[in-house]
């Protein structure tokens, strides 16, 4: 009985080694070795939507005469005015301007992705809402 157990154990260890080695080769198969001449200063263009002016698209990167394409997405909202690659930190909305019935807020540049050319500060506006929000005890019930 003891000989059978040790044989099974040895067989199990051999199977584990074989499957581990097979898994390593499968992972390395799709990878190509990196050259020391790989470019480090990639410059990327703007994201260009595949259909229309927003949605999924492609951006092209260039470096030392080489080019590559990356998938990207152009937002389909007001942010497209100053680029999908420019990220801003915005303050609170201002008061409603009676003359234009709009309110504005400004944002300062937080991050520029893909070496994008971004404005340092931006101002956005939107129509004032016709409803006024009240800060009552909504949904809390009556207390005595």
| Percent of sequence in beta strands | 25-35%
Number of strand elements: 7
The chain-level structural class is alpha+beta
Question: Runs with pLDDT <50, length 5+?
Answer: none
Q: Give the count of helical stretches.
A: 1
Main sheet properties = 4 strands, antiparallel
Mean pLDDT: 76
Terminal-residue CA separation: 80 Å
Quaternary structure state of the chains depicted = single chain
- As a percent range, the share of helical residues equals 10-25%
- Any idea what the radius of gyration is? 29 Å
Element order: H for helix, E for strand:
HEEEEEEE
Shape: elongated
Walk me through what this model shows.
The chain has a domain at 43-127. It has one helix and seven strands. The chain has one helix at 2-29, and strands at residues 43-44, 48-49, 55-63, 66-74, 86-90, 102-112, 121-127. Strands 1, 2, 3 and 4 form a four-stranded antiparallel sheet that branches. Strands 5-6-7 form a three-stranded antiparallel sheet, with no helix packed on it. A hairpin with a 2-residue loop joins strand 3 and strand 4 (66-74). It starts with a helix and ends in a 17-residue tail after the last strand.
